[in-house]
Amino acid sequence: MGNVIDTKDILQKYMDLKGLTPKQLSEETGVKLVRIKRYLTGDCDKMPMSEIRAFCDYFGLTMDYFLGLSNTKAWAFSIGNEKFESTNASFEKSCVEVVEYLKSKDLLKVEEVKYE
Can you say whether residue 110 is alpha, beta or left, with left for phi > 0 and alpha for psi between -120 and 50 degrees? Predict the structure, then answer.
C-alpha cells in the first residue's frame, strides 16, 4: 500500500460495497463527478484534503487506510460499558462524545480558561 493506485482501488472497492455509481458518490459527498471519474481512472494524481476527508467520512474509514498507508480502517475504544468508534475523519466528533460521556458520569471536570 502507499500510492495513488491503491487509493483508486480503495475508492472503487468501497463504492462497489455500497453499490454506488460515481454520480451517486458525488451527490452523497459533494465531490464533483468529474473529479471522482478522474480518480477512478487514475487520471488525477493529487486529491485535496477536503475530498479525502469527504470520502473517509462517507465510508467510515481512517485517512491512513484510504491513502494506503495503514491496514487500520477504524478505531474502537471503551470506557466502562460504553464503546466508542472513530475514524481519523470523525475523531474530533468522537472526542466530544467521550468528553460528554465522562462529564455525564462526573468523571471529568471541564473548566473554561479565559485569556486576558
Answer: beta
Question: CATH number, domain at 51?
Answer: 1.10.260.40
Q: How far apart are CA 34 and CA 55, in angstroms?
A: 15
The model's pTM is 0.65
Give the total number of structural domains in the chain. Answer: 1
Measured CA distances, 53 to 106, 111, 113 (Å): 33, 31, 31
- Looking at residue 4, its pLDDT comes to 39
Q: What range does the domain containing 24 cover?
A: 4-61
Would you call 31 exposed, middle or buried from its count of C-beta atoms within 10 A (0-12, 13-18, 19+)?
buried
